[in-house]
Every structure is written in structure tokens, then in C-alpha cells.
Known about the structure:
seven-stranded mixed β-sheet; two-stranded antiparallel sheet; 13 helices; 2 domains; alpha/beta; 11 strands; Rossmann fold; globular; Dehydroquinate synthase-like, alpha domain
Amino acid sequence: MTEPRPDLLTVHVPLDAGRAYDIQIGRGLIDTAGAAVAALGGRRAAIVTDATVGALYAARLRTSLERAGLQAGVVTVAPGEASKSYAGYAEVCDGLLALKVERGDLVVALGGGVVGDLAGFAAATLRRGVRFVQVPTSLLAQVDSSVGGKTGINAPLGKNLIGAFHQPRLVLADTAALDTLSEREMRAGYAEVAKYGLIADSGFFDWCEANWRGIFAGGPEREQAVASCCRAKAAVVTRDEREDGERALLNLGHTFGHALERLTGYDSARLVHGEGVAIGMALAFRFSARLGLCAGQDAGRVANHLALADLPTRLQAVPGGCGDVEALLDAMTQDKKVRDGALTFILARGIGQSFIAPGVDRAEVAAFLRDELAADRAV
């Protein structure tokens, strides 16, 4: 029996119908994952990872699983957003079937948000539903995408348009894995950290302004930030699991951001998800200020903090450009929050005061984007 670790932080997600699960947060969890995964039952644990993460951690995780008595195999995909596709989904499903994964077994997603979404969707549909475990290795995945059960792939017409709600049975956030992230990926993940303060917790945004360097440096602030974000997301998911209401708030910045990702062809060399979210959040606050919903100084404070963390905040920051106003609007119409063809945005009345704004006038959005592009060209 594994002794409890007092250094771990645990966040509980209290879903009903026996679907509650824990998020464990701390250093070294990849090497001790076997006992926790084996406790869930099943004979096999198939690891889904990408080539980059797999080279670092797959052997260690597999060893831990096998020491706990599980049969373990590995399915590896190419790194990057391009794997979150129809072809990538088929590749993972075929790999899991080749490993003879049964309904009583487990799929273990080892990687960032792309791997988590892809492996989770494969688990949701393989044999009409196989249990899965998230072992997120990026900051973005640890604070956001590994929690809450959203799984899916991208379509040519937009991001995350094909998917399912399929909750993990356990999340193991090994914060030591963040030591190997590039600075760019850490910054991209930090955009999602700041997001939680901007949505509904101005005090947490204050804390981020004072402590963001500690998160990057790997101090105790890192675990504290991950736990704070997971608690916030767990609370929202528990109240609104399938995004029928307030869970849409978690998409602050994503209507703009997803459109930018589509227009860059999901090319991570040009734009990664967190960078799109950072630009999107800055745009959302500037749009809110333009509409008279929040103070211009709040919009400025948001952009200044993101820029201090070396995150992009303007459309001109997208390498190779992001198209014209009509291209941006067209990409936004494929957003999952669109209802009856009308755009829905997450806007703000101030820091920590975001709200869902359905039916935003397309002409208002077009005029805003036109001015943003003109301002960028003038710089």
C-alpha cells in the first residue's frame, strides 16, 4: 500500500452518479502513478502520448504502471495541434484496439492539452466508452484542459467542433514535468492561469500580478496556482458540467483565440493555443471597454500584465497576419457558443466580473476589429 504524501495538494471534483474524482498536484507523480491508476481497477493501462513528451516520460510512466501489476502499452502521435484531427483520432483508436484495450481497462493521456483532448475523445468512443486518466505535462493542461471532461478534435471549419463530454477518473498533475517546458509553452499556459482571475476572482488576479514569476521559476507558487485554478474549474464544472450556462465563462478570450488558431491553420510555429487566448482576452477587455461595459484602465491593466509575462495582446502579433475583418468574423461564426447564427462573447464589467453576452451585434464586432487592425498597422 502506498503511503499518503503530505506534500501533495488534492482537489476533489464532486460529480454525481459515482463519477467524482480527484486531482493530485505535486512533484514526482509520474514515477508513482502506478499505484493510483491500479487502484481504479482494470488489467491494462494504455498510454497515449506524443513523440516529444513520450521521449521524456513514457518509459517512466510505463514502468510505474507495470510495477503496480498493470499491462501497459504506448500509442504515440506526432506533437502539435495537427494531431487533434480526424486522422489523429483514427490513429489513436487503431492503436488502442491493437493493444486490446477493453471496456474495463484504462486509457492514460500523457501530455499537454492536445494529447488530453485526443486521448479523452478516443476513450469516450472506443467500445462506446473506456475509462481514462489524465497525466497533464503542460501548465495549460494542468490548470485547465485536463479537468472537466471536455474532449475532442478539430475540424477544418473550426476548433473542438467534434467531441464528447467524458470525465477522467483521476488527474495526476506532476508539476516537475513543467521544468522541461519551453519558455513559450510556459507563457502560453500562464494565459489560462490569469484567465481564472479575470473571470470571477479579482483577488486571484492580484495574486498573479504579484507572484507570476514564482510560477515560472518553479517555486511553491506553481503548485498554489495549479490548485487554485483547478478548484475554480472544479466548482464551475460541478454546477454546469455540459456548458448549459456559466461554464461558458471559462471560454473568456476563446472566441477570438479559436478564430486566430483556425486562420493560422493550427500551425503551432505561428500561434499556440495560450497565445491565441492571451490575444483574445486582451481583445475581449478592449471590446468591453469600447462598449462602455468596463473601464479602459481595466483593459489596459489586463494587456499590461499579459505583456509583462511576454504574451501577445494584439492581432499584429500573429506571425504572417490573421486575415481581414471578414475572415475573422467568418472564423468566429464556427465558435461553439454561436446560437441561431448570432455571436456570443464572454465580456467583462471589470477584472473578475466576466459575463456571457449572447447576440452581440456583428456590425459592432466588425467595427471593433477594423479599428484594432488599423491601430496595429499604425504602430
